[in-house]
């Protein structure tokens, strides 16, 4: 081979250029990043226009707490006038909505020249704001100028849907200092919002970032959240309005619902991990799958190398994920805090890597994050309602996540699963879990949340946790993983607002607060698995006491006074807890849009060919009795079948008045048949059905018929399955078993008498 002219890049060459008889090490199939190469550019649906500018925001922690807005009662309620009385200064043209569906994607989105959608300024004195949202994670559909410094804004719905307007992130330019601007978002869909209880929007000034290193901060006055009274026959809309003064003239500013964390931000972070010579030793980056648009869904496996195979097999697993809902960027900040700690050289982090294998999916829905969706993927559906799906091509991200966890469960115990989310109606951070029905592990699923509340008392609220499993949540990751066997299966909900607890009371959360939660998850995991079970048992005792108090409270609310001593622990936990309807839940919308028509056709075909199923018999005894009755009927009928047919034929020929006499004939036949039916069903008053007699009767008739037609054939039966224990088998004879027991009965031929009757045996 070495002397042949075959050329291969896989063969090694020494310093003299001679080929060595060995192959190169295989290239790392998952080496996505290199220090010299560029990041993978995000892929957009081909309908989306994308500007060429790349945006980058600095991380910054405000030196002082950012308190909630305190309403004065004098906030103005603006009148919504719309574009009829205003001037459209920004509007996206080609935006896929309900009725269309995703077809393909490419880097850079729509082909062709990217137009400037903002208005053209008439001169330096023109103070019209210039809007833009065609960048990664951006969301703004339209801006209407209704007064000199007042704008009405319309958010874009999630692509290929007509709903889910919550997330906003857009840019404004050509600002003026010391002037009060008013912005009003006019098409929000949720009747309740944290903006009603003091939450402020986020603003970012590019000049402040460049000159003073100041990043995102909470801004806004005269904040109101109210119902839009414009009646157009559709679902009701809600409005968010606020006023603001920009810090500089001619500045570039950004507004957002929460701190953005884009797909590119994630890739930059993962690049730093891959290029770190220490972290890359215990953190392996892989491709879990590709999204609908072809963007990579990353999977991190974090654990210290084991010394022996037995040590590796003994490790339990922990599974964490985030951003299944793309507009809930707070999940990414908690995930970043977790990764920062678990990849550090802290002794606690090293201990966790020694005893656990961490499987981390940091961004489950990259397509939705890229295009600026709030809740859905490019299938136009909420992925967190489809974890039971079999549609791998339509929901690849969660299908492969569930499959990965399923394989992991076959290898080892998964101690904990947690999916990081955001919440738009409740403050603080809390968990949703699943009540355990096994009394051996009663209340154990509540220990981890209680420990977390003790480790982060100013951020995490155990009182807001809920463990009820509702039918509408059966498709969520939390419930599906719980039903797969993970006892500690959670959804972590982090508010878009802030805390109402401890020394952080009435203040907004910063990115540092959220990242600290990631650290507290690690800290609580160590407490939860401490070989010294003191903390665990203390929490369990506290949980029992809290639950008993809750039960007494429920009975008092119902006006009942009941002694629960000794029996209170038998009460169903689901009856005590309220539902999680306060969550940002949405019912499953069903199949992805592009499959709706196909599914309708399939269902129609199923209805056409659907057969009515017989009700199965419940016991072996019933099956045997029914089997014997049916065959006895066939035998009795066959004994009279031939003469009856002959008589019937002659009757047709000789008696033209047959139809007039058919009533008498049928009634006579019924009288003759009735004793047999009574005998079969055991309804005769003077007799009952004896299986041994029935068996003898059948054997006798079969023998007579068989010997008449084939004199040399002898019927035999096996003693192992006979229903009559007194019946002895014929010696030195083997039963002749036939695969097709009753062809004559099915085909209606008299040839049935050729076969031995084996129906006296019971089913196995």
Structural descriptors:
metal-binding; 6-stranded mixed beta sheet; 19 helices; metallocarboxypeptidase activity; Pepdidase_M14_N; single chain; cytoskeleton; 24 strands; alpha+beta; disordered C terminus
Quickly describe the structure.
The chain is α+β, with helices and mostly antiparallel strands. The protein is built from 19 helices and 24 strands. β16 (283-290) and β17 (296-302) form a beta hairpin.
Describe the model.
There is one protein chain. It is built from 19 helices and 24 strands. The strands form six sheets. Strands 16-17-19-18-20-22-21 form a seven-stranded mixed beta sheet, sandwiched between helices. A six-stranded mixed beta sheet has the order 4-7-8-10-14-13, with no helix packed on it. The chain has a five-stranded antiparallel beta sheet with strand order 6-9-15-11-12. A hairpin with a 7-residue loop joins strand 23 and strand 24. Helix 5 packs across helix 11. The longest helix is centred in the last third of the chain and has 24 residues. It is globular, with a radius of gyration of 38 Å. 34% of the residues are buried. The C terminus is likely disordered.
């Amino acid at each position: 081979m070495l002397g042949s002219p075959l050329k291969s890049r896989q063969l090694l060459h020494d310093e003299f250029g001679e080929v060595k008889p060995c192959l190169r090490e295989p290239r790392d199939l998952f080496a996505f990043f290199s220090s010299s190469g560029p990041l993978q550019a995000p892929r957009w649906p081909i309908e989306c226009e994308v500007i060429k500018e790349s945006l980058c925001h600095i991380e910054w922690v405000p030196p002082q707490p950012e308190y909630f807005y305190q309403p004065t009662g004098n906030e103005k309620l603006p009148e919504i006038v719309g574009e009829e009385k205003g001037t459209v200064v920004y509007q996206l043209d080609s935006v896929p909505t309900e009725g269309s569906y995703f077809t393909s994607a490419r880097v850079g989105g729509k082909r062709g020249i990217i137009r400037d959608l903002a208005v053209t300024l008439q001169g330096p004195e023109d103070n019209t704001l210039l809007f833009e949202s065609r960048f990664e994670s951006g969301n703004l559909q339209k801006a209407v100028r209704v007064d000199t410094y007042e704008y009405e804004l319309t958010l874009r719905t999630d692509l290929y849907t007509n709903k889910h307007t919550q997330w906003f992130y857009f840019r404004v330019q050509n600002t003026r200092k010391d002037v009060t601007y008013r912005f009003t978002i006019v098409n929000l869909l949720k009747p309740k919002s944290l903006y009603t209880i003091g939450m402020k929007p986020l603003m970012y000034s590019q000049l402040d970032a460049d000159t003073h290193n100041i990043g995102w901060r909470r801004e806004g006055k005269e904040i109101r959240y109210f119902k839009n009274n414009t009646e157009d026959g559709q679902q009701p809309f809600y409005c968010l309005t606020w006023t603001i003064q920009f810090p500089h003239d001619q500045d570039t500013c950004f507004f957002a619902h929460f701190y953005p964390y884009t797909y590119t931000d994630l890739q930059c972070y993962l690049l730093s991990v891959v290029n770190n010579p220490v972290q890359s030793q215990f953190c392996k980056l892989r491709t879990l799958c590709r999204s609908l648009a072809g963007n990579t869904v990353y999977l991190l496996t974090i654990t210290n190398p084991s010394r022996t195979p037995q040590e590796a097999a003994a490790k339990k697993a922990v599974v964490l994920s985030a951003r299944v809902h793309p507009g809930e960027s707070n999940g990414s900040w908690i995930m970043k805090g977790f990764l920062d700690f678990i990849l550090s050289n802290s002794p606690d982090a090293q201990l966790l890597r020694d005893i656990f294998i961490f499987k981390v999916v940091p961004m489950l829905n990259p397509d939705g994050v890229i295009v600026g969706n709030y809740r859905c993927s490019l299938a136009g559906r909420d992925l967190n309602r489809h974890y039971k799906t079999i549609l791998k091509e339509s929901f690849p991200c969660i299908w492969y996540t569930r499959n990965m966890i399923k394989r992991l469960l076959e290898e080892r115990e998964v101690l904990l699963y947690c999916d990081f989310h955001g919440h738009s109606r409740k403050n603080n951070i809390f968990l949703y879990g699943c009540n355990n029905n096994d009394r051996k592990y009663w209340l154990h699923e509540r220990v981890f949340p209680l420990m977390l509340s003790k480790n982060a008392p100013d951020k995490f609220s155990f009182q807001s946790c809920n463990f009820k499993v509702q039918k509408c949540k059966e498709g969520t990751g939390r419930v599906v993983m719980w039903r797969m066997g993970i006892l500690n299966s959670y959804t972590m909900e982090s508010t878009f607002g802030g805390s109402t607890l401890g020394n952080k009371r009435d203040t907004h959360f910063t990115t540092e607060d959220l990242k600290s939660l990631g650290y507290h998850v690690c800290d609580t995991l160590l407490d939860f698995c401490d070989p010294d079970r003191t903390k665990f048992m203390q929490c369990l005792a506290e949980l029992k006491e809290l639950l008993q108090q809750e039960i007494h409270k429920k009975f008092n609310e119902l006006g009942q006074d009941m002694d629960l001593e000794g029996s209170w622990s038998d009460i169903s936990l689901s009856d005590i807890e309220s539902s999680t309807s306060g969550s940002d839940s949405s019912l499953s919308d069903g199949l992805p849009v592009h499959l709706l028509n196909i599914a309708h056709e399939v269902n129609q075909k199923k209805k056409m060919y659907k057969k009515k199923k017989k009700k199965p018999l419940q016991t072996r005894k019933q099956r045997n009795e029914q089997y014997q009755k049916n065959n006895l009927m066939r035998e009795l009928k066959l004994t009279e079948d031939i003469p009856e047919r002959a008589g019937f034929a002659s009757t047709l020929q000789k008696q033209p008045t047959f139809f007039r006499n058919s009533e008498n004939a049928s009634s006579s036949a019924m009288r003759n048949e009735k004793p047999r039916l009574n005998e079969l069903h055991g309804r005769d008053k003077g007799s009952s059905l004896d299986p041994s007699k029935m068996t003898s009767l059948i054997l006798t008739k079969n023998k007579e018929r068989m010997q008449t037609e084939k004199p040399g054939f002898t019927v035999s039966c096996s003693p192992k399955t006979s229903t009559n224990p007194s019946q002895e088998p014929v010696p030195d004879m083997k039963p002749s078993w036939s695969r097709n027991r009753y062809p004559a009965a099915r085909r209606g031929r008299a040839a049935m008498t050729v076969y031995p009757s084996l129906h006296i045996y019971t089913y196995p």
